């Protein structure tokens, strides 16, 4: 029996990780610890919320007293840490929130692990989920490996880089069993519609302009979110203590090419004339400090632990569009802020 706290389980990737662990390991107890910020939505987990091995705890990872109390009460064997402020644009307008949640929140969790745990995996493990953005930007060639020097450019990536350093410092200084993974951009169901792909799907559907930064030349390496959750599962169970793994899709797309592909799929799905949705593409002023290209070399993960992506991008994108078109209510609730109001009423008075 293992008891695992998964932080940020109500968010996009966290909900896929929670679902995977709850359904794949019925003998594990999974505690989803999430503060339900604008990005957290328990509707993401409706299909598993009644499972006997799943529980939701509302709480803030920056609240040291609360986290210490939770460790005392629950005695977790492991933490899989995904809770974060995750949107680069928001980090540019409000960097302090990113320092608090991503840096201070991570250190608060590490401190609790330090205080309450003795013994390395399989007794205890702190798994930190991070991003390829800590490595900075690439030119036209090359890929990020686990040895690439950290060179973050946005307040978001700087905060994630800082949290990665703290995780390594707690491993080296206090001997806590830690693993870190740095993943490329994810796509799939339950993605909050402020991010590129769900925003574009939502706007195309509503016949609204589809904003594309600059000339759409920025290149990202896209990974199906369920493949990320599977990689986390593999790394959590098999990686040696102190290890770092890059996770990526070997799937580089210029933003503008991706949006054009999405427009074609949407034309087909919505019965529109070919080329109609692409008329909605609107180029907007580029994001400050916008990294040109990210590309992940995930060779180490394949070589050591046998993981590789399962889906071709076109197939994954079709599935994603199908999910958004079939889950209109989810999208409406998220965009109208209904679900936030609901959770405020549900939880603030308790
Ligand atoms: N989205 C990507 O493409 C991507 C790629 C690589 C790595 N990551 C990393 O994966 C993790 C999850 O990303 P995501 O896209 O699912 O993010 P998200 O924004 O969808 O979800 C974040 C979750 O964390 C919760 N949260 C935020 N602040 C909290 C706090 N103080 N206490 C408790 N919970 C809090 C939110 O309520 C939300 O449920 C992040 O650490 C992110 O850096 C994301």
Automatic annotation (TrEMBL):
Coiled-coil intervals, chain numbering: none
InterPro entries named in the record: dTDP_Gluc_deHydtase, NAD(P)-bd_dom, NAD(P)-bd_dom_sf
EC identifiers of the protein: 4.2.1.46
GO biological process: nucleotide-sugar metabolic process
Superkingdom as given in the UniProt entry: Bacteria
Glycosyltransferase keyword on record: no
GO molecular function, one term: dTDP-glucose 4,6-dehydratase activity
UniProt domain NAD(P)-binding: residue ranges: 5-320
Obligatory cofactor(s): NAD(+)
NCBIfam families: dTDP_gluc_dehyt (TIGR01181)
Membership in a protein family: Belongs to the NAD(P)-dependent epimerase/dehydratase family. dTDP-glucose dehydratase subfamily.
Name of this chain's protein: dTDP-glucose 4,6-dehydratase
Organism of derivation: Parapedobacter luteus
């Amino acid at each position: 029996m293992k008891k695992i706290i998964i932080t940020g389980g109500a968010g996009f990737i966290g909900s896929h990780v929670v679902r995977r662990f709850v359904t794949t390991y019925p003998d594990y107890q999974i505690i989803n610890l999430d503060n339900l910020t604008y990005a957290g939505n328990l509707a993401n987990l409706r299909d598993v919320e009644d499972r006997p091995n799943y529980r939701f705890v509302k709480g803030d990872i920056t609240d040291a007293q609360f986290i210490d109390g939770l460790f005392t009460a629950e005695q977790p064997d492991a933490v899989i840490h995904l809770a974060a402020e995750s949107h680069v644009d928001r980090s540019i307008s409000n960097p302090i929130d990113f320092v608090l949640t991503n840096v201070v929140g991570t250190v608060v969790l590490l401190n609790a692990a330090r205080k309450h745990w003795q013994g390395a995996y399989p007794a205890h493990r702190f798994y930190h989920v991070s991003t390829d953005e800590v490595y900075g930007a690439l030119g036209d060639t090359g890929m990020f490996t686990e040895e690439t020097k950290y060179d973050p450019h946005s307040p978001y990536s700087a905060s994630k880089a800082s949290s990665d350093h703290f995780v390594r410092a707690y491993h080296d200084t206090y001997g806590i069993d830690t693993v870190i993974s740095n993943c490329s951009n994810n796509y799939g169901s339950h993605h909050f519609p402020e991010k590129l792909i769900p925003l574009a799907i939502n706007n195309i559907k509503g016949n609204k302009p589809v904003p594309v930064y600059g000339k759409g030349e920025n290149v990202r390496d896209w990974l199906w979110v369920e493949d990320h959750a599977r990689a986390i599962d593999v790394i959590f169970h098999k990686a040696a203590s102190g290890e770092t793994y890059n996770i990526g899709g070997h799937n580089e797309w210029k933003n503008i090419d991706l949006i054009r592909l999405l427009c074609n799929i949407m034309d087909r799905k919505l019965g529109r004339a070919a080329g109609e949705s692409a008329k909605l593409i609107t180029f907007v002023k580029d994001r400050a400090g916008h990294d040109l290209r990210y590309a992940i070399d995930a060779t180490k993960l394949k070589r050591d632990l046998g993981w590789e992506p399962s889906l071709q991008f076109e197939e994954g994108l079709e599935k994603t569009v199908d999910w958004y078109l079939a889950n209109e209510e989810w999208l409406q609730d998220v965009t109208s802020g209904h679900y936030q109001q609901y959770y405020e009423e549900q939880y603030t008075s308790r």
